[in-house]
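Appendix B, Record 12. Input sequence as logged:
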Amino acid sequence: MSIPFNRAYLTGNETSSIEEVLQSRIFSGNGPFTKRCEQLLQQRTGACQVVLTPSCTDALEMAALLLDIAPGDEVIVPSYTFPSTANAFLLRGAKVVFADSGPDSPNMDVALLEALITPRTKVIVVMHYAGVACAMGTVMTLADKHGLLVVEDAAQAIGATYKGRPLGTIGHLGAFSFHATKNIHCGEGGALLINSPALSARAEIVREHGTDRAAFFRGEVPSYGWTGMGSSFHIAELNAAFLLAQLEAMDMIQNKRKELWNAYADGLANLFASGRVTGMSRQDATEGNGHIFYLECASKNERDALIAHLKDNGVQAAFHYQALHASTFFSNRHDGRPMPNSIRYSNCLLRLPLFVELNLLEVEHICNTIKDYYA
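Logged structural output:
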């Protein structure tokens, strides 16, 4: 038996959508498939506006432009995340202030958040790890108290909720990823969710290289020109066509992933109860989206040995992020605060295979292989 870590899912309808693009010869961004995806995402999330982008990285960089991030601004970012979460704001000249993960969650420890806020703080960026919500109630209360903006890095969180509200729609801005490793994908793609009407008007200018070209095409201005800062944030129509087929199958995809997630939770429940290894809890699944199922081992050596044991038994497992504050690039820029939880997750977290075409017998094999290791 050979089980990969991930296999990108095809619904079967991607080809017909792509053929429609080829017949239309409309290949560049902001075409009919882009607009259909944006409308569908807006309907599903309730966001004020949705803008498809070439990647989640682009969505985050567009967010930084929309929020007028500039040198001297401080932006609070989790340490346990992908570099794009921080890079988007570093590129605008901001000072990034890292926050540690929680003792029982890779997400930002919101109990430490207020102590990081200074008069220069402008934005709090949260990341919803594994499609499990950060404590957004606390985050938004602090943001309101201190007059701050909130960006949700919801790269892994499409379809997940916090107290019934879709992740990506609670902060002022939210970013989705449609990378091939995500629940819903088009190889490479992303979306920016704009939840503040005050930001919506500028979004099309930022997206259109800083011009009012969109207004020109609508006949609202006689010609278009450069009106502000911007860049090119359009996704190609071929990617959007692929994405539409995925979005239309979203309920089936999410339900299948949650079924597999629950099979892992059931299969490893006794091992978790023994205390030999820690796993995700049923609470994580309540409003999650079945994006990741992870274990937390006792040490890096144990984690690496378990990965090797799984590989010997035909299973590809993986670790995940390395704490950004301790990275080669950022370690000499960090203020020296210890972040033990981010380091712990970097060293001890192990992700198990989870993709739509994984079957329950394969999940059983993976669970039995893990239990054999700890026997």
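The chain is about 40% helix and 15% strand.
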